[in-house]
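ok, trying the design again with the full structure, not the truncated one.
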């Protein structure tokens, strides 16, 4: 009987588990657990029930840091050439759990795209990220492409990004 009463009492105690993308982000940020290679911007879907978010950084920041600390000139020429190009480093989080790997998006006109992947014998897909740098609004779309990589259709999500605060250093990422 006491066990049932205790169990009932435990069920009445409010849970402190995060329920929004913002709460998941805040929890990771406060612990210093964001991927430090991609921690310049954090982006939230405009749908408040979407518990996922993503962060990204720009290659120019990595390049400038490496130039300042003298490591850029020690890199192989092909790596220097890649770092001279503009691309984004992106890491997604599902309910506060990071995706397995970072994604790299190359500049494509006014947008950024990842590498196309084969979905089936006749369809490829790729992700495109378009950012309005004045408002930090974004469109993230999965594009369906033909075998020859011609655009067919897309499914898009919209939201807003913001700068990641510099108050707490983030520690996760390559050493």
């Amino acid at each position: 009987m006491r066990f049932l009463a205790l169990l009932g009492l435990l069920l009445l105690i409010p849970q402190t588990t995060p329920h929004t993308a913002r709460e998941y982000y805040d929890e990771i940020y406060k612990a210093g657990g964001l991927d430090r290679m991609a921690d310049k911007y954090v982006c939230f879907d405009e749908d408040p029930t979407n518990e996922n978010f993503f962060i990204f950084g720009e290659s120019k920041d990595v390049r400038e840091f490496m130039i300042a600390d003298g490591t850029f000139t020690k890199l192989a020429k092909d790596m220097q050439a890649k770092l001279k190009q503009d691309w984004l480093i992106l890491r997604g989080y599902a309910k506060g759990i990071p995706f397995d790997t970072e994604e790299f998006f190359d500049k494509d006109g006014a947008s950024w795209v990842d590498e196309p992947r084969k979905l089936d014998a006749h369809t490829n897909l790729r992700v495109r990220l378009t950012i309005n740098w004045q408002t930090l609004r974004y469109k993230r779309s999965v594009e369906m492409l033909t075998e020859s990589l011609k655009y067919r259709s897309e499914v898009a999500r919209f939201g807003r990004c913001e700068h990641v605060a510099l108050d707490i250093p983030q520690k996760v990422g390559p050493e």
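Keeping the full-length input from now on. Residues 17-163 form one domain.
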